[in-house]
């Protein structure tokens, strides 16, 4: 018995006006065997396609079992919601409560506030990543996903185009006061430039240390956080791999200060991060290129490695910098 025959028998002989579909010509038992290999979130997506498949899935997978996602993993739930929200520009997927929440036009990486949200992020990013930025620019998972969604969608309403511009807006901050991350008397400028390339969310962060009351020196940079794996902050916490992180970051700084006038380029071997350090008279410039990945969930390897530090992901050295492309910053061309 084909699926069409099964459906019309189930529907008591009602006649269909839909064009023929080759998939629906398969025997029911064969289709059930195929569907049994699919994860729960995919079954629910198939469930929403047409009445014959909805009937099959309800009859063989849902009847007597309640919610098909009741015993699913958090990853299955988030995958289902992520796929379901692809064409819903006014919703974002919350990793904490596994629900869709309404967007807020003032919720951006540089202006994020819990009062704008019905639920805070939870698994969206880790506490470590949220605190690793000196200034208030933290692209959380919802910001990344909404930016990618709006870039993909065509014929967006004006309100979503306006929100997309806010999500992609560069951020700048300047610091001259005494701060625990730098030596007193050194000026620090920070800029962030988000960008979407080939369906991937890329971020260029630029730190510029300048002579102010004193000259910039190797000792001026008391805290440097490139990524979870190149970070002096982790050494302060005495984590088990702190010595490795310290060696890597200190080596990079020593190399850059030893060879002045040219950018020294480095790459992280555990997440998709490239960076360069250039020292010159009165200035130290640190550029960080990061790839936060395509549309997906917080369980994706790219996001997990770069934001949650729950895995390692290799990439070709300097490939993120090359993918981002040249960028004009402060009168200097960065390539």
Automatic annotation (TrEMBL):
UniProt name for this protein: F-box domain-containing protein
Location of the F-box domain: 20-72
Superkingdom of this protein's organism: Eukaryota
TM regions (residue ranges): none
Regions annotated as coiled coil: none
InterPro entries: F-box-like_dom_sf, F-box_dom
One Pfam family in the UniProt entry: F-box-like
